[in-house]
Amino acid sequence: MRATERARNRSALVHQVRYALRHPERVPAHARRAARDAWLRLRYRDHIAYYRAVMASDAARSAEAAVGHNPSRQAWERIGRMQFDYLVGHGLQPHHRMLEIGCGNLRAGRLFIDHLDAGHYYGIDISPHILLAAQDTLVAEGLQSKLPYLALADDLTFAFLPDAYFDVVHAHSVFSHSPLHVIEECFAHVGRILAPGGFFDFTFDRTEGEEHQVLHEDFYYRTATLTALAARYGLDARFMDDWEQLPHRQSKMRITATADRARTVAS
């Protein structure tokens, strides 16, 4: 993505008018999202409850639509494979214990489950609708013998998970839909559940201009903001430059505990 695009404020009226003129065919869908956003924000003051309702609305159309705005099965499979290939190429091994935050209907999770030893995958999501779809994916892929754990979560404190347990924590397209206080809650607690030398990979919508949000669904952050927030909780955050070469509009960072700076999960 070009630097000029990274600097755009997508919430600005001028940008929205120009976008509508360039893509008139997308205006009806955005209008529906805006109307839904206004209604749900009146009903739900808590962001988790709000976004759970968003996912329920999207899942009513299709499970794929609830995991990203593109309902194409081909896109669903392609993005899942991209996540899997990248993480395996950057340290995920079969014996590792993995937590996937926002596992959805196992777009990438089905591949992680197949790759990992039985019982080593743990997926959490805020949406009961999408977790039921995840069970359908397990059946369709024949992965029952891998005994993955799928759990409903209401926050990112991980209070029900054990200390120093997960070698790899992964969150794709979660922080792109999260206000900063939700990300901070995750950073405040993820260090406790990381095993010594473990890492936490996440994607986010990056801006090089003013931080902003579009409706209450899409949030854009500067890299420095997330790096500083992680440091507040004893975490090192590293921007993953090579992810930028892949056909995905979000950026990726890797977090490790500052005390583990010189260690890796392979050691």
TrEMBL record:
Record bears the keyword Secreted: no
Name assigned to this protein: SAM-dependent methyltransferase
Organism taxonomic ancestry: Bacteria, Bacillati, Actinomycetota, Actinomycetes, Kitasatosporales
Family: Belongs to the CFA/CMAS family.
Domain of life: Bacteria
Pfam families: Methyltransf_12
SUPFAM superfamilies on file: S-adenosyl-L-methionine-dependent methyltransferases
One Gene Ontology biological process: methylation
Residues in Methyltransferase type domain copies: 99-200
